Every structure is written in C-alpha cells, then in structure tokens.
Amino acid sequence: MTDRLIALFILCLVLSVPFGIVLLFTGEMLLNFVFFWPLFMSGIWISGGIYFWLHRERHWRWSPDMPAPALPGNPSISVLIPCFNEGLNARETISAAMAQRYDNIEVIAINDGSSDDTAEVLDQLTLEFPRLRVIHLAQNQGKAIALQAGAAAARSEYLVCIDGDALLDRDAAAYLVAPLLANPHVGAVTGNPRIRTRSTLIGRIQVGEFSSIIGLIKRTQRVYGRLFTISGVVAAFRKQALTDVGYWSQDMITEDIDISWKLQLKHWAIFFEPRALCWILMPETLRGLWKQRLRWAQGGAEVFLKNLRNLWAWEHRHMWLLFAEYCLSTLWAFTYLVSVLIFLVGL
Question: Which residues span the domain enclosing 341?
Fold first, then answer.
C-alpha cells in the first residue's frame, strides 16, 4: 500500500510539473497543446501503420480462399474461454472455437461461478463436442483466476484466450500461434478484434475505432517494439512466458494490460497479428461505453502505478516510449478538461 501511495505521489509530480509550466505561459500555448497533440499522435500512428504495411503486411498472403496456415510440427493448441453468465453466448462462442480449420486443438471452457444457466449449457456442449473440456468454479473469482485454472488444465504449451462472448475467425488460432513458433522470444500475440454490435450509432462508431484507430496504434507500437496492451478478448500466450511472470494478477482490474507489462518488463516480446480476427460484442449505450472506458482508464493507471518505480531501470528503457506516450496523453486529457472549464468560466 505504501508503495502505491508513493507511486501515486510521484505520478502527480510527473504530471503537475509540465502542466504547471504550461499554465505559467499563455492560454494560447495550452490551447495549442490541446489542439496539436492529437494531430501529432495521429501522424505518428498513420506513419507507423504505413511502415508496418510496407515492411510486413504487404508480403503476407491473405484471402478467404487460402487454406488454413500450416504450423511447423503440428503443435497442439489449447483455447481457453472463461465464462461468467454467458448462457446466451456460450454455444455460439464454443461452436466458433470448434470450427477452426486447424484441427489439433482442444477447447477449455471455465465456468466462473455463473448464476445463470451457463453451467448447464456448457455441460450440454460437452456431449456435442468431444474436444471440449469444462471446468466449473464454485464461486465467481474473476477472469484472472478463471484463466489460471484453464492454463493449469491445458495440455498445450500454446494458449489462445478469448472472452465468453467472442467469435474466433476460422483461422484465428493458427495465425495467433504462428509467431510463437517462429520466434522463441515472443511471449504473447494479440489478435485483431472486430465489432459485431452495430445496431446503434455508438456501436457503429466503435466499428471505425477498432478497424482503424486501435489497429493503427497497435501496428505503430509494434514497430517501435512495445505494446501498451494486448487485446484481452483475443490473444495467445506461451505457457513458459506466463510461468516466468507468475501468470495473470488477481488484484488488477484489467488483467490484459497488466500481463502485457509483466511480460515486456521480463523481456518477452508481444506481437500483433492483424489476420487473427475475432468478432466481439461491445456496449451500445453511452452508459455502458462510459463504464467500460472508465474501467480501462482505471486499469491503465493501476498498472502504471504498479510499475512506475521499476521503469527507470536502464534494462527497461525500451518501455520509456510507452511511458512518455501515456504521461503526455494523460496530461492532454487534464489540459483539455481545464481548457473547457476556463472557456465555461469566461462565458
């Protein structure tokens, strides 16, 4: 607790110093930062996306008519699906996982103490799919515990983890595991989530966000070597790497951001595979979107504070760009808020 308070104090100092400098100058400088920072980062992300395409994506053969990717040695893959109150979605999710064209897979569904009919649905599905195994947890303990239970039961070294309402594309598992086989230093591979809830304007806006902005950000971060986070809804892990970092943390609200930083601080690389598509559900109301983004923001802050003390070590210098981007983006958010308040006061 003391470490967290000290880290929070340091974070306040880190953010307040440049913010105070801005306030000492003119309001015009403040407004310039508010206006130009998003433009600057957009230019960086677009440039990174173009570089990623020129050096990687344009050389990839990829079309719906292509056969399933061949994996050297035909290794087994374990697909982990933590489920909490997913009675309405479990059948569709597991059916999509079972429909992978790469056939050396097992699917493990973890019922995380659901209070609906998830347990009954999963048990029924085991009769339909011989390769499906189900783990029932007596009480809801969170996604991190559910994933750990699935990892402990998995027979494979390669784990593909998806949410209980996500639909894997038919070749997603193979595309996710391929970089793990190609490079022993890759500890995780994040997939490419696509939105399937499009009945409202909020849902359709997120289609563009995930298809363009988030994809460009991940491509750019991969270019300079570090990702702020994997996509928790679809990612693959090397079990050896998870063992090295102690698996998923139980006390983090966003286990995906936390495991990303844990792996990279231990010098495991994270790869982005845009061909590993996964169709996901997202909030379609402002209230739901606000709760989700607030959770993401809190999770990022928790991970930042947790690792702040160790980030200054020279061995972690490759994380400094992520550190700087996070600090400046957080500063921009507060600066934007202050500029709006100043405008309202001046009315």
Answer: 2-37+317-346
